[in-house]
């Protein structure tokens, strides 16, 4: 196999040092074998998982990848490094052909099958939606715990008719997240991450995020700001005198001939209104910002009702403006799912008694007796920061071993540590290993 590169530095076929054998399969499909390997330092369970991930990575690069390169300049000169990054696309199905330890490495050889697009999708000329596709998505769903915190209103004067907006947005995000099988949404709507919403950046909330994660046993934290709720369009409408005039510009009343005939008049009322939020998604273990997006929608019609409607009520959602807000809420939930979908389920070690460990997650989170989780020891004293500034990127972790669950309660699990090369302590992290 020969690796080729176009002018856009796109690699479509790459020789990776592992054995690929391309076989004949169904029309539009391809079968091939690939071998992944990993050191056995942290035990066979951790080594097998790492070897499978290595095989998946190599197979993804085989299908198509782009070259990411970086260059470093210092007093000693310059150096350059590169890495093949797989393109987004459907995850292949596979079966394990053979596995075992060889030369201090755990090797797994798998046969993979790339299924073609379905006839229905192909007939409609559609391709799979872009974005991450993870093998864990097909496994038993585990509920990642997400805490939604207060959303600051940058221009509160724009929303006198929307009482409870700052606390209503996170409460609604938590509710909609909980409707998805992979999330448990919790609202901390009165808790603000940053002191000055006008000037603050998401990174300023990192320490508070880590504290919330420890205190609330959360894996992710959501926060943000309501950027815009302004009226962006108006039109003249007939009104009855004495009727409520919410959304009406008092200076734009018609007072010409026949004004007031039969108790009617014409006023300039709001007919178009914006709803825009800034969405911050954090990893609660490290405080790292995973996403910082702006989501917006424009409502048309009755966008400022005659009387204020409390955010989140059925009357609010039935209004033209409420439907636009609902669209933004759905986009926010989808964005969070896309951002966190490939991050494994994680929990914390709450207590250790010799080889027995107690985890802060249980049956309500989807765990079962017999599940295995990899144990990682964070090194908070070595927080990694971006070169040239103080932006925190994350905390290095050391793979320690694995835990097998022997008892699962609704909010608690008890496991036995295997193959630990370091002492497991309270505060260490565990990540789920799917059964495959």
Automatic annotation (TrEMBL):
Pfam families hit by this protein: FlgT_M, FlgT_N
Feature: compositional bias, Polar residues: 70-82
Domain Flagellar assembly protein T middle residue range list: 139-305
Gene3D superfamilies in UniProt: ABC-type transport auxiliary lipoprotein component, FlgT, N-terminal domain
Keywords associated with the record: Signal
Region (Disordered) residue spans: 70-93
InterPro entries: FlgT_M, FlgT_N, FlgT_N_sf
Residues spanning the signal sequence: 1-29
Top-level taxonomic group: Bacteria
All residue ranges annotated as the Flagellar assembly protein T N-terminal domain in the record: 32-113
Protein name, per record: Flagellar assembly T-like protein
Species the sequence originates in: Gulbenkiania mobilis
Lineage: Bacteria, Pseudomonadati, Pseudomonadota, Betaproteobacteria, Neisseriales
